Amino acid sequence: MSRILMMVANPTSSPTVGWPIGFWLSELAHPYWSFIQEGHEVTVASLNGGQVVPDGFSDPENAKSSTPGDFVSVGFARCSVTSAILSNTLKLSDVDPHGYDAIFVVGGLSPMVTFIDSDLLHEVFASFYDTGRVAAAICHGTCILLRARRSDGELLVDGKRWTGFANSEEDAVDAGAGRPVQPFRIEDEAAKLPNTTFVAGPPYRAHAIADGNLITGQQGSSGHRDRPARQRRTCEHHHTTSDKGRVMTYTSRRVSIPSGDIQMVGVLCSPDHADHPTPAFAIIGPIGFVKEQSPMQYATRLARLGYTTLVFDPRHFGETGGEPLQYDSPALKAADLSAAVAFLAKTPTVDPSRIGVIGVCMGANWAAAVAAQDPTVSRVALVVGAYLLRTKMVAGYGGKQGFDDWVAATAPAYQHFLATGETDYRPMIAERMEDSFFNFDVPYAWYSNWVRHEPLNYRGRWGNELATVSEHLLWQHDAEQSFRSLSVPTLIINSTDSATDLATVEHLVEQLQCEHQLVVTGDQIQVQFYDDPLTIDLAVDHIDSWARS
Fold this sequence. Notes:
Elements: E1 3-7, E2 12-13, E3 20-21, H1 25-37, E4 41-46, H2 71-78, H3 80-87, E5 90-91, E6 102-105, H4 111-114, H5 119-130, E7 134-138, E8 161-162, H6 167-177, H7 186-191, E9 197-198, E10 208-211, E11 214-217, E12 226-227, E13 232-234, E14 250-259, E15 262-271, E16 278-284, H8 294-304, E17 308-312, H9 330-345, E18 350-360, H10 363-373, E19 377-383, H11 390-396, H12 400-420, E20 425-426, H13 441-448, E21 466-467, H14 469-474, H15 479-485, E22 490-494, H16 502-510, E23 516-520, H17 528-531, H18 533-548
Parallel strand pairs: 1-4, 1-6, 4-5, 6-7, 7-11, 8-9, 13-23, 16-17, 16-18, 18-19, 19-22, 22-23
Antiparallel strand pairs: 2-3, 10-11, 12-13, 14-15, 15-17, 20-21
Helix pairs in contact: 1-2, 8-18, 9-10, 10-15, 11-12
């Protein structure tokens, strides 16, 4: 449980239009309920304490409301518990900010008058940032970032990317009022600051930016995406470079990686001209993958950012091969990933204390398992994991008995395989989708492009089939056990439309007892994280920022 300090503005009068103004109700109500439902303790404070009043336009029951269907805000205003909070907020000067894990500054019309010159609020907000706690602001509440300074005297937003109520939105407000409403505009004033980047998203669309522990939202539509207690992040797409802004060149070479009694074929990407041992990542991809698919997309980008990266064909796949082909075993995948980590640890240009693993799609299962068991692994990034979960499988088979019956029914074929090495095969992509392993639209469409790839040898040796005995092992794996055992820093990257639904991912995150971050990138579909450059760039940016933090 975290303690969160939410700051709202006291009522005042607009110096430009003379209206009574206050805070924006939804920007308090929606995050407040989210925090409370997640078990956090929330304190609402204001500069003067006492009663606070929402802007009339933010009150759904006001005839001029801009959000008439906002029933969460209606409930907040009517509930005896929360309405009492609005009647008697704490005075900021009476609050000990050291007792809180995060601060969340709510917007509205009043902050542009009351927050902009509050040295106390600026100092408190900066103290959260300086001490590594989450410092979040939304909408017009971000006006404080025009003035807030860190303990070293520098503007808090120096070198930062951030957002707030945008000019396009101010234009709409002014057009409705027939005159300028605000005494100044945040976007205009931000443009006057050196060495900072204000990023405006589309008007009145959810848009939030996380830059380190500073989290900002453009307006009330972003409130549900600004959840600082969990550092769940839905961020706009921006690109970063390393080494003080210089994108590095890299060299790739084929390598042989010992794993058990076989030699895996891999590709090692090493940054050129590194003057010290580099951090490194071993990368593992989706079910039935070869190194030339999604792993290579991440490896080359991270190599340009100064990381040594290693991709490989695990045993039974691609150039590594081994009988039977296309045999996907959780234990073997984990062992092969650990072998890749051991190879990196012996690579002279790699810092052995800074080796991480990255798992994409189903590879997230094996990355989590290895990170939970292998002491060489210092961190793990899980990208749109297609998580194998016992609870999901049991539900899919109609209950525990149905699942146990399925396991028992597939066991003889698996035992026969162990005794003879013989197995049947199922096509990944058949002529009819219903006959395929990937028997639903998105993966069927994506993998169909790989079915006839033989002339394109640079795309590796992907096989269009899966040994059927693999399913006996795969569907019994339970990623939740790995999450409960993780003790290294963990980054989880997910979208709202990926293979594992967001509620399930959040449940897995709740099992973590280690340092972690959950990043929600937007509504990209699963396979965009395999080969869509914009989506992969976004994921890599988050991996890079997290690895350097």
